[in-house]
Amino acid sequence: MTIGALALSLGDPAGIGPEIVVKAWSALRHDGPAFVAVGDAASLAGAGAEVRVVASPAEASKVFAEALPVLDLPLPTPVRPGKADSSAAPCVIRWIEAATDLVLSGAASGLVTAPIAKAALYEAGFAFPGHTEFLGELTAKAPLEGERGPVMMLTAGGLRVALVTIHEPIAKAPSLLTPERIVHVGLVTAQALRRDFGVEAPRLAVAALNPHAGEGGALGHEEVEIIAPAVAALRSRGVDAVGPSPADTLFHPEARARYDAVLCMYHDQALIPVKMLDFWGGVNVTLGLPIVRTSPDHGVGFDIAGKGVARADSLIAAIRLASEIAARRRSA
């Protein structure tokens, strides 16, 4: 495959995945980056693409300008747009595995994943909270220099946020915070900023959990007992980290100029500012993997699937960012 070509797993075929993959190809077909879709060719053809089934990913770049290249791993039966269907789950999992294998083997330079419907996968016995954790398992045996993730980072509008806890109920997140966990996320994030984003001297801001950073223990003890010791440990490891800082003062323009990424303690603490800055263009990046992986920062969109209104901005941004990171890793 031509250097820079990516593998893109289709995601849930009943969601907006087929539509946004087709729209992304249409937007990128002339200037790239090129990608090969891994999934059901019929679903992509039904979404309006001129599809070219390829026998291997090496063909993708050659046909990308004329047709959407697809490594066809067909569904056993068609699915209805907008209708969750757990019978498709084994194929969705297989598509992720196949696309990951392409990157691990060097046939593709990076992985981009379209959205999956977690509930449908859980019904089929999927044992992981989401893509991030599954990819950590799939790549666990591949060699990697430095700290290993997976760590979820979201980026948009010049903001990067890394999550210490991810898909956890808000009531459970505080009990999962430990100094060791925060330090690990900080080390992986600092490493990725250098390797994947070209930041020579990364600066991390560490968000507090409680209002007003706990008010010295009056509004919660996590800052005193967990987060502040983690910040001190990161600094002892050579990471330029500050905090814990009240989350409500971390995301205005002047504050963002003082750091390269924020470590956030729970899901919405990270995703709300990202989506406020750029609702349509956010990208999810998995840090600490031996492969490059990005995805759009949204879900399957069952409510609009098949209606032709889904926007591909986030997927296009994810494809471009994956290509940029892959190129930076190659040059290093």
Question: If you had to describe this structure to a student in words, what would you say it looks like?
Answer:
- With 332 residues, the chain is of the alpha/beta class.
- Helices cover 37% and strands 17% of the residues.
- It has two domains: 1-144, 3-Layer(aba) Sandwich (Isopropylmalate Dehydrogenase); 146-288, Isopropylmalate Dehydrogenase, CATH 3.40.718.10.
- It has helices spanning 17-28, 41-46, 60-63, 89-104, 118-123, 131-138, 173-176, 179-195, 222-236, 253-256, 267-277, 313-331, and strands at 6-9, 35-39, 51-53, 68-72, 111-113, 151-156, 159-163, 203-207, 240-245, 261-264, 283-287, 293-296.
- Strands 3-4-2-1-5-12-11-6-7-10-8-9 form a twelve-stranded mixed beta sheet, sandwiched between helices.
- Strand 8, helix 9 and strand 9 (240-245) form a beta-alpha-beta unit.
- The longest helix has 19 residues, at 313-331.
- The two termini are 20 Å apart.
